[in-house]
Amino acid sequence: MEKDGTDVTAQTTDPAEPGTGDGSGTAGAGPAAGAGAGEGAGRGRAGRTKLVSGPGIVLVWLYGVMTVGAASRSVYQIASDFGRAPLAYSLSAVAAVVYVFITYTLVRGGETARKVALVCCALELVGVLTVGTWTLVDSSAFPDATVWSYYGAGYILIPVALPVTGILWLRRSRALTAPAASA
Amino acid sequence: MLVALTIAVTVAALALAAWCGFAAYRDQSTKDWHFAGMAVVSLLALVQLVVGIVEVARGEKPHDGSVIFFAYLIGAALAVPVAGFMSLTERSRWGSVVVCGGGIVLAVLEVRLIAIWGG
Fold first, then answer.
1. Could you say which residues of chain B have pLDDT below 50?
2. Is the dihedral of CA B28, B33, B39, B44 positive or negative?
């Protein structure tokens, strides 16, 4: 809950941000109009915080690609020859589950989903950094590659870039909808 | 036959990625002509899937095994259509970015396919 405190300061320091898209037309309308514009831009038809509009769709798509990649890879590896590299294949499966879950929360939207997705992105980042460093330090533990080996170099480093982008996007979505939440 | 088709799909996918990347750069959403381009690339990938099935049915053995081979062929056939539908729901430059990414992913899949097929 201490996170709320930092977010409140963030929303008060840049109150103009939600209104910038609309600001030229409603220059004299004051902060209330700005908050309204922010609510309109950030809320979907279902009343949930929409996480897949604008740049968010690129994020969802990237997570979808990584989900398919990690899931199909781990299913194939575990089904065909699990004994060869149990650690690597288990970690691929964990990565796949994390990707599935984040993709789902992003598509679903809403404030709870946004918070859960933030936590998962942080977990994902920790996972990528841990496994990436682990493969560098002790490659003998990994007879075969995982999705997160060498920070995801086999996937053009998308696995390490994705959680960082995700966290930035999810924090920004919060800033956009914050006026509506506090009103 | 399959390798030639793979190269054709790679080139077409990269062209589509560049085209939609340019649209995103100019802050434009995907237009009808982009969807025609996506249809062409998707059709090529579908033909590739059929040719792959025929080649394996005729007794050819992909170097890395037919399960991985078909998984990549199916993924390649789906990459651009899925990106296209997502760009339909997002009528802004970000929809174009998704299709651009779809083309790049398809090209990567094709490069991997050559290794899976030939070793």
1. none
2. negative
Shortest Cα–Cα distance, B23 to chain A (Å): 15
Question: What pLDDT sits at residue A21?
Answer: 37
Tokens of A163: 């959680």
Residue B75 distance to chain A (closest CA, Å): 9
More confidently predicted of A122 and A82: A122
Give residue-wise pLDDT tens across range B47-72. 999 999 999 999 999 999 999 999 99
Q: What is the ipTM of this complex?
A: 0.90
Length of chain A: 183
Residue A22's alpha-carbon distances to A19, A173, B50, in angstroms, are 5, 17, 50
Task: Kindly state the tokens that stand for B82.
Answer: 């899925």
Which range marks the domain in which residue B72 is found? 2-118
Paired tokens of A113 = 């989903």
Answer whether B90 sits within 8 Å of A65, measured CB to CB.
no
